[in-house]
Specification:
By secondary structure, this protein is α/β, with parallel strands linked by helices. The protein has a single domain (about 35-195), classed as Glucose-6-phosphate isomerase like protein, domain 1 (Rossmann fold, 3-Layer(aba) Sandwich). Helices cover about 55% and strands about 10% of the residues. It is built from seven helices and five strands. The protein has helices spanning about 5-40, 55-65, 85-95, 100-110, 125-135, 150-155, 170-195, and strands spanning about 45-50, 80, 115-120, 140-145, 160-165. A five-stranded parallel sheet has the order 2-1-3-4-5, sandwiched between helices. Strand 1, helix 2 (about 55-65) and strand 2 form a beta-alpha-beta unit. Helix 1 (about 5-40) packs parallel to helix 7 (about 170-195), helix 2 runs parallel beside helix 7 and helix 4 packs parallel to helix 5. The longest helix is centred in the N-terminal third of the chain and has 39 residues, at about 5-40. The N and C termini lie far apart (about 45 Å).
């Protein structure tokens, strides 16, 4: 096996996918960033969730908002539902793993808030339950998915925003998701600070 060739192939596949879908995803990412800023400016907060690598992405996004991304600014109200291990494990133990995010959304969410729901397949039960809970709380949803969007794409409300990466590779989907999250952070900062 030629590792150099395999590594360069991964770089090429990732770069090509991003360039191929750039125009397709730019508009929903822009709309999501405007909605997120509106939420934050109206004293709402952004709750984020996902499993596995998507859990890490949810935490990464919240950290970039609470601390800062690339520009100095006050902290913004964001919270990852993947970060509180005692809460997650108690819900999973006492009820069901599928409720680990939904119970937090019902406890912490308010109508002015937004849920950032991340699932590469769009079929993660715990993320689907979180979206249902957000809708119950009259919260908007920004969904990051892959493949065809799965069951999540079918449960979104008309005002919700869907950023779907049309790929069957989990790695490639996650690579685009992190780029999309960075684009959201950058756009929020630019809108907030008036950067051209």
């Amino acid at each position: 096996m030629d590792l150099i060739q395999r590594i360069t192939s991964n770089f090429t596949e990732s770069a090509n996918l991003k360039l191929e879908i750039m125009d397709q995803l730019a508009a929903p990412i822009a709309i999501a960033s405007e909605r997120m800023l509106q939420c934050l400016m109206e004293d709402g907060k952004i709750l984020s969730c996902g499993n596995g690598g998507s859990a890490a992405d949810a935490q990464h996004f919240a950290a970039e908002l609470v601390n800062r991304f690339e520009m100095e600014r006050p902290g913004l109200a964001a919270f990852s539902l993947t970060a509180d291990v005692p809460t997650i494990t108690s819900i999973a133990n006492d009820y069901d793993y599928a409720q680990i995010f939904s119970k937090q959304v019902l406890a912490l969410g308010r109508p002015k808030d937004l849920l950032l729901a991340i699932s590469t397949s769009g079929n993660s039960r715990s993320v689907l339950e979180a979206v249902s809970a957000a809708h119950e709380m009259k919260m908007g949803v920004v969904a990051l998915t892959g493949r065809s969007g799965g069951a999540l794409s079918e449960m979104l409300w008309p005002d919700d925003i869907h950023v779907c990466v049309p790929s069957n590779s989990t790695a490639r989907i996650q690579e685009v998701h992190i780029l999309a999250l960075h684009c959201l952070c950058d756009a929020i900062d630019c809108l907030l600070l008036g950067v051209d």
